[in-house]
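Exercise: predict the fold of this chain.
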Amino acid sequence: MAVTKVALVASMMACMLIACSYSKSTLTCDQVTVWLTPCIAYAVLGGNVSSLCCQGIYSLNAAYKSGDDRRGACQCIKDRAAYIPGIDYDRVNKIAGKCGTKCPYKVYPSTNCSAVQISAKNLHKKLDRICIKPEKLHICSALETSRSSPKL
């Protein structure tokens, strides 16, 4: 009986650790680099943005979970771009638009990536997901009220 309780507690702790590590996962610079490497040709040479580059942009945008993810990706792109001879930062900043999406920041050698924040629009989308079960989280009605309030 005691062994069963220990096994049960150990199993529950393992599940909690897995759940916590999954929910706090952040982007790595290696992930960002893999996704955006196909964009280097356009950033240096111009021409057309490849479909692989756009797929990387979409993957990066889908992977953002927090402001920390955005700041980390910004810093990664800025740091790695500094090592690419002939990179045109104006082209870099046009890539997302050419792929039909937006980037929440502009990348230049002088960009302060620590100032990058999650957009209010995306924050509301994330909060809407939390509010799916309002009986468990009583913040939903307050959020709805704040969203419908007129802007000053």
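Check your answer against the key: The first helix runs from residue 2 to 23.
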